[in-house]
Amino acid sequence: MNDIPQPLKGLRVIEFTHMVMGPTCGMVLADMGAEVIKVEPVAGEGTRRLLGAGAGFFPMFNRNKKSIGIDIHSPEGAELARKLCATADVVCENFKPGTMQKYGLDYETIARTNPKVIYASHKGFLPGPYDHRTALDEVVQMMAGLAYMTGRPGDPLRAGTSVNDIMGGLFGAIGVLGALIQRGITGKGMEVQSALYENNVFLVGQHMLQYAVTGKPANPMPARDNPWAVYDVFTVKDGEQIFLAAVSDAQWRTFCDTMGFADLKDEPELATNNLRVVQRPRLIKTIAERLAHRSAAELASLMEKAGLPFAPIRKPEDLYDDEHLLATGGLADVKLPDGPRAGDSVKTTLFPITLAGQRLGIRLHPPRLGEHSAELLQGIGLAEADIEQLRARAVIA
Description:
Layout: E1 12-16, H1 21-31, E2 35-40, H2 57-61, E3 65-69, H3 75-86, E4 90-93, H4 99-102, H5 107-113, E5 118-123, H6 137-143, H7 146-150, H8 163-186, E6 191-195, H9 196-203, H10 205-214, E7 230-235, E8 241-246, H11 249-259, H12 262-266, H13 273-278, H14 280-291, H15 296-306, E9 310-312, H16 323-328, E10 331-335, E11 345-349, E12 354-355, E13 358-359, H17 373-379, H18 384-392
Parallel strand pairs: 1-2, 1-4, 2-3, 4-5, 5-6
Antiparallel strand pairs: 7-8, 8-9, 10-11, 12-13
Helix pairs in contact: 1-8, 8-9, 11-15
């Protein structure tokens, strides 16, 4: 790990977060080298205990962090949290509006004693008429057009991952990085806000601009007016599926040569992309019939050799065997901190960038609840005996 760049090494982040959005922001900063201290309730953050679709939340988004358990509802606990924030370069939170003010952990209060602090709030909505509403990823996908664009007409469908939570955390981290540069110039911190709704609106902005430019509403993606004729999923031998595309006239000619479709290549009605788009229903039907007896593996090999775009249709669990991820170190081991498999190692996905040619790896496994409490409290001046008394009274964990 010594040769992997850590551009944020020396930066201290105090994180009051839960679920996905806030933890994603902290994870990004932690992956880039920051000391990220996750302040949890004494019972632990709730995602430690989630089942089903939430079972991967905590180990995915809380690596490279330290954990301290504090009951901020108690005056003593809130005071400890404020002392930690006094040592912070960055504070992150993603609770309902007004929650942090109750405990003197809001930006205005912390900035009075720590004017250099950068305070990243992650909310459902930026300040305005909606900011009192309770938001979830699925809520904003429905109200900001993403579910409409993802599903078939009349059947809005949420995207298949926590796209707004994750990207909301990424945008929060981008704001923090910008504020850090500004602080280097002025010496002063600032508040950064990121929100699920505005994040989703940004994601569908291309469809809004499509309407503004053309005057025509964007159709949901399954029913969209496709700008390319060959750009589809085909069902082939043994019921397997594969996505194939040819998005230029040169690619179309190569596609025909590769698949042995000389007759289609020679048709004047299919000579250009726009002509092929007009003929798309007939063309897709013809291609599907001709490919139905061929295997997905054969087609993938042909497309790859020809330099044409293609994709196997895979499930998330299939990615554990992906040759590219395995060859490039895109997966790394982490130890599970909770549950019946606590202590077991599993593979997780790394932040999808390189710095100086290196992937940003795992320095700290997802922490056990309160794993670093004593170390961190000693760092703000508490003696061992005081720490044990606080633990005995459940002020800390």
